[in-house]
Design a protein that fits this description.
The protein is an alpha/beta fold. The protein is built from 23 helices and 12 strands. InterPro entries: Adenylat/UMP-CMP_kin, P-loop_NTPase.
Amino acid sequence: MKMRGWRRRSAASAEQRGWVDTDESARSRRRRAATDPARHRFRSAQPPSRTSPLRDELATQLLIQQPDDPIVFIKQSVQHIIRKRDISRVILIAPPDFDKMTLAKILQKETGICPVTLEGLYASSPIGNICRCYDANEIANRMKKMLMSGILHESGWILVDIPRNKKEARAMQYVGIIPTHVIQIILSRIEDKIQEKKDIRQCDYKKNLRGLRDAYANLLIEVQAGNKTIQELGKECATLMKIRKHYGAPSLFRIVLIGPRGSDHRSLAKHISESFTLVHVDFNNILKEACLRETALDEMLRMCDHRCAQKVKSEARIQIIERYVLGSECLKRGWILTSYPKTVEEFKLLDMISTPPNRVIVLKIDLQTCRERLLNRECNFTTESEHEFSSCESSVTDPDYKLDVHSNNYKDIIEQDLQEYKENIDAILQYAGETASIINATGDRKCVKERLEACLIRSAPSAKPRIPYPPPTIDPMDIEFEPDDEPDLNIFDDIRAPEPKYSFI
């Protein structure tokens, strides 16, 4: 677009010469980022752990293969993962006297996956190199070549008696042989002790078992044999093979708890932060802390506070929150936010930060109940704790136990806050849509805490991501060709060098 290209070049040159306010340009970049649907597709309201298996698989393959062209490699790797995502790759670990081959054949009948043994690897090796197959690296390389050919590459595999120790397991991981399941068959203790006395192979198995469990700790599934028949054991293992064990980074909660004053949202957030080891981020508290610092933003906050308690602008408020939640503790443990957002515009700004919330919980409670709670509340200014009138008998007998009404609990302030919440909550719920979980906050507080905990234990609602500012619609008739625009890259398909082909296990 001609005019658009001129503006882009002019803005870039003006910014380089210092003619453009950097804060304004930062805000414009943030707003443009909010209009990108692809950005919000990845920063959805779903927990981050849902994409971690794919991310871990890509990172593992990149470290193993170390390709010359990482972009092409990632593209082909994603295509390969999509095609092969339901294929199981199993390592079977069992004591030497257990009939592993029979169990592998039952699994083959149940799942259609072929078993692979060390004898089969020896049979596929040249006669002159059989003696070298006892080397861990040689076994790993020949196993990789075997697994990448024929039906094993298409249908998956079950390794029956390999790897035998930690050294072979690490060598196989190094060349890219990564299983999806590692099943260990555990016999009863009495039977295990009898076999250990009779057979020296059992002693070697016990010696190598710890190393194998350490190498595959993230994928290990223990199956107790007990009194089950081999057929029952095979069906149980086949069922376990259909379930992928999650081994990525755990989900970090980034919770926004929305509720009116008097709904006990701050005490509920404190309880949740202690139960789930989260950081409780209360906006009112961090605003007070920010006013004590010596920065340009904090100086502006103090000026707003002196000018008749002027309300802090939304841009400054979100900067305070973003600076806090990007701290090491919040990034490491997750957080739960209270007293913010109060309007839908603040919610949209919150969704535009680097780590937006992935859970939105709204407390549903009658405003009259909140009003009665606030009017029936006093504050101990020494400890800054709040108490109900009904629980303050000690103030009559203890002269040092002095309570008074906090300035925020005056009737006109309460009415103003509740009215503000009433005017904005419908727009907030409409913007949050199905990503918000609504909790009944009436009744006994213990029951409310249990409802809140149960909501977090359940998976997040499956819904479309929130997009703060949808991209503007462009009329095709307004688009003009500009010689400086990048051409369509498809015209180079006939003259471009072909992409390198990478192989995957």
